[in-house]
Amino acid sequence: MTIDFSKNNGLIPVIIQDNQTQQVLMLGYMDEAALQKTQQEKIVTFLSRSKNRLWTKGETSVNYLKVVSIKEDCDQDTLLIKVIPNGPTCHSGTTSCFATEPQISLLKELENVIENRFSNPTSESYVASLLQKGINKIAQKVGEEAIELVIEAKDNNPDLFLNEAADLLFHYLILLKAKGFGLEKVENILRSRMKNK
Fold this sequence. Notes:
CATH superfamily of the largest domain: MazG-like
Shape: elongated
Largest sheet: 4 strands, mixed
């Protein structure tokens, strides 16, 4: 990565984007030292123009921005950093420094619920109980739901068909998680295939 720091008195604008929701979280500025620190520590550090010093986002609030990727633009004078935020990004307590909150898709929301059930299992959680039974049981459940969907597809009851479709999708997301993947990986494959159509 070769960045041109010469255009703006040694500073470059940096756009911070949530890696999961794709929401733009904030805009900051870096000099060479801030970029180097960010690359080394994998936590976003800016040059504070008001304090004239390096400032790691979250150093007082602990709302750090964990780096996922850093990309330069075509002119090599602006950066896009995708992050995993540890709490709100804006000092006002909102997710983003910009007014709109992200519109998270229902499937992403469901993935987050499944992730939470995996990370914090309870005895009442169906997802956690299924996980406890192992990958074979989860895969078997996906197969059962697929067969039930096929059976309903042959009949003329839209409600039953749609409910079976929802069951299959739900268990498919559980299987993906159990295998260590998210829907994003599947989406990427589908996007690459669309380019070849």
